[in-house]
Amino acid sequence: MENRTELKKLASYLGVFLITCLVFISGLYIGRSNPSQNEAINVKYQLTGELKSEYQDVSVDILWEAWQRLEQEYISSDLNAQDMIYGAVKGMVNSLEDPYTSFLTPEEVTEYFKSNAGEYEGIGATLKQVGAYVAVESPIDGTPAQKAGLKPGDLITSVAGEDVVNKSVYEVVGLIRGEAGTNVEIMIYRESDLKEYTFSIIRERIDIDNIVLEDLGNGYYKIKIYKFTEASLDEFNALWDLVAADILLKNPKGLVIDLRNNPGGYVSAVEYILADFIETGKVIFIEENNNGVRLEHKVTRNGRLLDVPIVVLVNNGSASASEIFAGAIQDYARGKIIGSETVGKGVEQKMINLTDGSILQVVFQRWLTPMGKNISKEDPITPDVIIEETELTDTKAIEILQGN
Q: In total, how many domains does the chain have?
């Protein structure tokens, strides 16, 4: 009897133990099924590299915390880790709210250098970041963008029906470019009119000779400089040397330097051209870094066109290197500046190559005219003669060269 009683007690204890185990196991299962809990999941990538929890007393743990929560909670398990990294870098750069500092992925780098060489298929306009928008900086003369009626400052709101607000310059460029002969529809908002406009533009192969010499008649010539770039600085300078040699053979009475809708380019390229118009030893522009240290750039060679009268044409699409040129000519009264106010981009960028082929394009210093004026959006190059009507500028330029 006693043995039977002991067996009953043992069975009772075992039952309680089994029930307790079942409750614990079910609780553990419920806890692991709760999406609010941190749980391990399978991912298709592995993060490598030196991870830092702090940099200059700022904790970067929040980045990895957000990354982990995306892995755990995001509805799609097919996360592209490389895109996430690039997105994080772009977000960091965009937080500077500087339209001239940007991050380019390797694919965007390829497109960037195609544009610099002046050979690509698209509409022919340079773009810039303006807050959440991408805006037209300069519709290059003679291209589909300029012929269609796009203007500097137009805010692009959609491309081919796709909303592009909050997209980067390079994302919008990717949508606009395409095979020559195909159509792209671009919607813009023009602040001056407080209206939206839609442009249907046929893409073309953009293959521009960046420097073109035109005979205006009666011994006057126009030099149109579309951009201060080529595939390389050496190629640009060689192209200028050919044009300068041609001009010398013509013994011109005067030159019109047309920089309208010229978005800029290599600072060294504009420095090279200015040396042909300004005397040796003179300062042509000044660079100032983030510590306030200034470096004067002076003419170091004998100019070939020092005695040729000149007039410089600018407009609200003339930026950067174009403004360096116009500012130097204006400060030394070397020639008259005519047209409309310029963009006001008085900063320089440099390209920092990163290890995977991507690039940081960083504003690292500002530049000043020979007399110390820093060009800005609030204080751009103001022409000596204001002419808003584009078709009248050539006529007015020749009148000025003739002394009228």
A: 3
Tell me whether residue 61 is one of the annotated catalytic residues.
no
Q: Which of 144, 128, 147 is nearest to 207 (CA)?
A: 144
Check 320, 322, 340, 358 and give the catalytic one.
Answer: 320
| Residue 334 included in any domain | yes
Cα separation, 328 vs 348, in Å, equals: 16
Among candidate residues 65, 107, 67, 61, the one with its CA nearest the CA of residue 85 = 67
Return averaged pLDDT per consecutive 10 residues of the chain, 404 residues in all.
Answer: 42 38 31 35 60 74 89 86 90 88 86 66 86 86 92 94 88 90 96 94 86 94 91 91 96 96 90 97 95 95 96 92 97 96 91 93 93 93 90 87 85
Find the catalytic residue in 128, 222, 227, 345. 345
Catalytic residue among 167, 318, 331, 358: 331
Q: What CATH number has the domain bearing residue 281? A: 3.90.226.10
Is 327 strand, coil or helix? helix
| Same-domain check for residues 219 and 358 | yes
Does residue 102 form part of some domain? no
Q: What gap in Å lies between CA 131 and CA 165, rounded to an integer?
A: 9
Q: Tell me whether residue 23 is in a domain.
A: no
d(CA 198, CA 231): 33
* Residue 297 belongs to domain spanning: 209-401
Model confidence, pTM: 0.72
Q: Are residues 128 and 252 in the same domain?
A: no
Closest CA to 272 of 313, 308, 230: 230
Asked if residue 256 is part of any domain, the answer here is: yes
Closest among 301, 328, 298, 296 to 312, alpha carbons compared: 328
The yes-or-no answer on residue 320 being catalytic is yes
User: Residue 298 catalytic?
Assistant: no
